[in-house]
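Lecture 7 notes. Example A: sequence first, then its structure tokens.
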Amino acid sequence: MSGLSDIKSVDWWLDQWGEWSRTQIGVRLKYPSLTPFERLRAKSSSSVAITHDEAAEVDAAISSLRMTKRIEHDVLREHYHRNRTYDEIARGQRKRYSDILAIAKCARASISEILFPHA
């Protein structure tokens, strides 16, 4: 059962997870490290407002998508962990921007179902 409060939106939790995951480079999260350019592009100061345990719970929810909903997993990881815009993701995957937005919406709904099953 999720210990996360559903008072905050799933977008807030994902934003916080993204901040947390970028601070965990080299801590064996199974994500490739960011390039120097990406480090410069990221926010200069970490503003993580969730605990390590809460972030790990969001991380587990995102990881659970990897086997069954790979494209959703990849879009979330690219947007929140790698700090890429949906437009950049669309260009990189040679898909329409509107398709990536639809995938992201489904991905957020999937994460919401995992994190807040009774909401």
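Example B, a different protein, same format:
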Amino acid sequence: MSSQPIADYALLSDRHSAALVTRDGSIDWLCFPRFDSPSVFAALLDSDKGGRFQVAPTTEHYRSTQRYWPDSNVLVTAFFPAPGWPRSPTTWRSVRGPNGIGGAWSARCEASAAP
């Protein structure tokens, strides 16, 4: 099971499927292309074998927040105090690359699908 409380997850959906995204930029649950499809990412159920997709700062010491852009399903995940304050707007079926505010920073990307 995931160590994340369910309240720390945000929901992205296109009404055919849905993804659960953590505050630290990890998609821990996704059945695609429909709700009744097998899971692609299932770290919510098994953090070692379930698979996830994550974009996060390379530094280990950061604080993160999430919010939905007003009147949309665009999810903004912000990382602080990583240099440059990386922010990654995410919409369903479209993950936009992170952008920095006020400086340079580096990110890591992890992708592993559920078996």
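Note on Example B: The radius of gyration is 14 Å. Residues 33 and 106 are 31 Å apart (CA to CA).
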